[in-house]
Amino acid sequence: MSRIKVGLIDYGAGNLASIGHVLQDAGFRVRISSNYHRLDECDVLMLPGVGAFPPAMMKLRSTGLYDYLRDAAHDDKAIIGICLGMQLLVQESLEQGYTPGLGILPGRVLPLGEKRWHIGWNTVECIGEDRALRSTQGECFYFNHSFHVVDAGSCVIAEARLPQPVTAAIRSNRVAGLQFHPEKSQCVGIRLLQMLIKDIANA
Amino acid sequence: MLRKRLIGVVTVRKGWAVQSFGYRRYLPLGRPECLVENLDRWGADEILVQVIDRSSRNLGPDFDLLMRLGKLGLETPLIYGGGITSADHAVQVIQSGADRISIDQILHNSPCEVRRMALRLGAQALIAAVPIRFCDTTWLRHDYMKRQCFPFDDELPALFQDRVVSELMLIDWQNEGNITEFKPEQLARLPFTEVPVIMFGGFTKPSLTRRFLDHPKVAAVAVGNLFSYREHAYQDYKRVVGSVSLRPPTYYG
Known about the structure:
Largest interface: A-B, 44 and 41 residues
Shape of chain B: globular
Oligomer: heterodimer
Number of strands of chain B: 12
Number of strands of chain A: 14
Distance between the termini of chain A: 17 Å
Order of helices and strands of chain A: EHEHEHHEHEEEEEHEEEEEH
Strand content of chain B: 25-35%
Low-confidence stretches of chain B: none
Radius of gyration of chain A: 15 Å
């Protein structure tokens, strides 16, 4: 049986080599690209992201990946967004002013509020029956963000606490987002990535 | 519950990982990649690589080192500090494998550039590293290039107020490699409010580390020299610190 191929979307806003290595060690084939044809050949697309929402969206638009990702989601392609990548999947963000997002999943990105930062290891509580998240119920993952997704409704599948609840993961069918960094969450993060990628690829 | 962090520090000078004593005396340890790999394997909460001679030699960030670290496939968050003098540098460091950056000189020389970094990377990626002394009842920051201590001006507090930088690393540079003389009560004298603090420099005593971790202002304690000589040194230290605010130590393999 051939290994699942993960397409890491290269739009200039992420640490691709690092996550690429981790995915390879987790047993996946990895392709890093911004080329639509090469990404089409992949089973799962991964949208990583470190940085701020507006410049990231600008890069997606200028590279044509904005339309590509929206079309891919419409065609039921499996997509996973990580950290900023998860935020880019939703409708809009108020980071540095108003910026529309990809609009693939419901939700808005707002500042965290009184607790300005969510930096460090926090427990992730699964809401609902997502199998991959259930397998790591109550484990700690590494977070590093100052804006968060709200109003994602029934797409929220996991939360963390600051102590107020913060959306930790969202999913609708074959599109998922993780606010934390599974690739930097050591063994438990790798285990979650393995389960989630296999689950979403075969959904 | 959000945990506090015990950060493992690797100090690099002239391309080698070193054990540092007050940033004045150094013992060679070996290749930085080996120490970083150990900390990753031991499940450190974060790893800080501080390359201490890049700014003074005007060399910019050590991208070669970052590339070598990138090939390790680290599964632990990596903080890089050393030689970052522009927003472009900062972005390139993140794209080269770091998850966050630690900055010192540029905070005071060019705060506008720090603001540009935050616009591109987000403030959660930026840590203000400040070598510091506590004199009478006042905190003074130490400028290692000018070799002088200064009182805090308004710029650094403004960077925190404006959500440009996310955390403040206070470095007991005089006692680094020894035992810190800082006390948790002194944190009340900081000219910053609501700023998460990382303590670094001389945190060799587990009981003192625990006292600082119990302080509400402290988000993390960073430790370097202690972790260089024994297998599982990181986990053993975490176990002895025994703070409930930390993730429990993990022994793999």
